[in-house]
TrEMBL record:
Keywords: Cell membrane, Golgi apparatus, Membrane, Transmembrane, Transmembrane helix. The chain crosses the membrane at residues 108-132. This is Caveolin. PANTHER family: CAVEOLIN (PTHR10844:SF29). The keyword DNA repair does not apply. It comes from Periophthalmus magnuspinnatus. The keyword Transmembrane applies.
C-alpha cells in the first residue's frame, strides 16, 4: 500500500473490488491531486518572462470554442448498425492521435511564418488606423458637428413626439385570437 495526499493507492490488489463497484466509478470518486511541479519543457527564460501565462492559457477569450471537437462529435453509430468493439476503440484512438499529431506537424510548419505575416498585417492596420483613419474621422466629426446638432434637434422635436403619439394611440388596441 502506498499513501499519497488524500488518495490511497493499493498496488497489491486483485481485479475484485471490496464493494463490487466498477473500477471506473472508483477512479472518478478519487479526489484530484494538485501538484505544483513545474513543466519540464519550460526553460528558465520562460519562467521569468511575462509570457508564461500564454503557455498555460492559450485561448483565454474562447475565440476557438467551435474547434473543440472530439471523436463523439464527429463519429456516431446508431443503435441499428454497429461496428465491432475493437474497430470502434481503434478508430477512436487513431482519430485522436492523428488529429493531435497532424495539427502539431502543420503548426510547426506554418505557425512561425503565419505569425510573422499576421503580426505584419495587424501592425500595418494599426498604423493606418492610428495615423490615417482616426484623424480623418476626427476631421469629419469636427466639420459635421453642426449637422449632428441639427439631426439631434430634429429627432427630439419632430420624430420623437410623432412616434410617442402614435404609440399612445395604438396602445389601446388589443388583439384576441380565438380558435374556431
Amino acid at each position: 500500500n502506498m499513501q499519497t495526499g488524500h488518495c490511497k493507492i493499493d498496488l497489491d490488489s486483485s481485479d475484485e473490488f471490496e464493494n463490487g463497484e466498477d473500477p471506473e466509478v472508483l477512479w472518478k470518486k478519487a479526489p484530484p491531486v494538485f501538484e505544483e511541479e513545474e513543466d519540464i519543457h519550460t526553460s528558465t527564460l520562460v519562467e521569468i518572462s511575462d509570457t508564461k501565462p500564454l503557455i498555460n492559457s492559450r485561448d483565454p477569450r474562447g475565440i476557438n470554442d467551435t474547434l473543440k471537437v472530439t471523436f463523439e462529435d464527429v463519429i456516431a453509430e446508431p443503435v441499428s448498425v454497429r461496428s465491432g468493439d475493437r474497430v470502434w476503440i481503434w478508430s477512436h484512438a487513431l482519430f485522436e492521435v492523428s488529429r493531435v499529431w497532424i495539427y502539431r506537424a502543420v503548426s510547426v510548419l506554418l505557425a512561425i511564418p503565419l505569425s510573422i505575416i499576421t503580426g505584419l498585417l495587424f501592425a500595418l492596420l494599426s498604423c493606418l488606423h492610428i495615423w490615417m483613419v482616426g484623424p480623418c474621422i476626427q476631421c469629419v466629426q469636427i466639420g459635421t458637428r453642426w449637422l449632428q446638432s441639427l439631426w439631434s434637434i430634429m429627432m427630439e422635436v419632430i420624430v420623437q413626439p410623432l412616434f410617442t403619439s402614435a404609440g399612445r394611440c395604438c396602445g389601446g388596441f388589443s388583439v384576441h385570437l380565438a380558435k374556431e
